[in-house]
Amino acid sequence: MSEAQATIKINHQRKGAFIEKVKDVLPEGGNLSLCLTCGACASGCPATGLENMDPRKFLRMAALGLDDEIAGHPWVWMCSQCQRCTYVCPMSINIAGLIYEARQLWPREERPKGILILRHGPAQRQL
Q1: Residue 16 to residues 28, 29, 46, 63, 67: CA-CA distances in angstroms?
Q2: Of the segments 23-27, 84-88, 123-127, which one has the largest average pLDDT value?
């Protein structure tokens, strides 16, 4: 592995509380096994490759119950919430919705300042 590639350190304790929280934005009651790992979500994502992450990797982390890694990974703030990943997903997994919820796991004082989030409608909130 080259120095340019970053690795994701995995805490071996899987929690899965994140999936329980976001079941309402997922098809079939939170079944992330529906993901075909086809990579369509990553192909059009403007944040793919930043911090060695993409929507497909994020989804796999959520499916594996890697809550600590999801809650602390800065990539969720690099996502522009353009929802391309959600639109192209053949299994209709709301990846943008998952990323929005992952942002909520960050303590308010640690969140980047001045980021506007558009959540599935015209109302914007500044975090």
Answers
A1: 17, 14, 27, 8, 6
A2: 84-88
